[in-house]
Request: fold
Amino acid sequence: MKRKNKVNKILRRVKVSVKKIKKLNRKKISFWLNKNLREHPFILGIAATFWISHIISAFFESKWPLELLKSHFKLLGIISGAWLALVILFNTLKDKQKIKWYFRKRFVFLMLFLFFPVGLTLMWFGSGFKRPTRIIFTLLFAGLFIFTSVRHEKKYRAILNMSPLDRVIHTVTSEKKKAFLKSAGQKALKGFRFAEVSKKEKIKLAVSEIYSRYSPSIVSIKTKDKNGNEIGLGSGFVVSKDGIIVTNSHVIGAAHRCEVKVGEKVFPDTFLINNFPDIDMAVLKINAEGLYPLAIGDSDELASGQFIVALGNPLGLEQSVSSGIISAIRSGRDMKLIQLTAPISPGSSGGPVLNEYGEVVGIATVASFFMAQNVNFAVPINYLKKIILKE
Reply:
């Protein structure tokens, strides 16, 4: 009986809180000016801290704007729901003094140091600080918060000083997630040589000819987590008859297993020969024979205006082809990138970019940026050639 009485009391108090909010809305008083809601700024301050921290970290890590917007809506919805639930819960307490401990000056001052948005909210909504003191503390700690959030970390400081191209390179190489694939070891590269097209055999090909000749060498890569759930999709291409595959490093990032599809045949067991996240390239191995390797060209010979063809699996649509030209060869602080007009969509990452002779000159790696048209990038293939020769 005692438990039932307690439950009934809590339910009655919750109903009273809901009625108060409805009454407030009927009076057309701003929801945020409600006294009961103002008495719970600690939760609002925590929400503000997470919100601002998320914006700063996401912006300086070069996240895509659409992804940023989606994550913000999710975060705001969760925090707002939790905050309103706690407001209703706190409103059921008889002794309102139990929830006002966070208005004490010492605690507010501590929060200004540790979590500025929390401290700022507490200071302006219920602390005993005088107005001039509040203004001084706001300006002082706001400057400190911005400085420590943006300028303190070396990586943020470096990104702030980057050119647009270096920001692109940072995006390409920043996703350094460890791949958990079984290792094939360096022995898999013993005696390996890239296929090449001799000068006598070099003939300019049309897009349709390039597609018909070389699309069978394009592979689809599905990555899975340790539970076998699919976590990613990308492209790659064959560089040896016995199953050596090249793709992007970010395609296999965080993968515990990879499923490679060549034509109609699926290879569930994929091994990692080597991973080069600094240039966004990875070399894989599947147990296969009789594959058709693509010939490797010389990316140092590329020039603006040159015709190129991109092969891949955009959005999982296997063996798709697109064509364009090289807009420019961009040199950044750490590496070069090929800027091209051929459309590259999610799922095409890791696919080859070929010249008019059907030679691989780059690996597609970055799709178009927000509010940019026909701005896509590929990593020059010569980076891979140099690394493989050193192995």
Notes: Confidence is low (pLDDT under 50) at residues 24-33, 368-372. DSSP finds twelve helices and 13 strands in the chain. The first strand starts at residue 218 and ends at 224. Residues 311 and 321 are 5 Å apart (CA to CA).
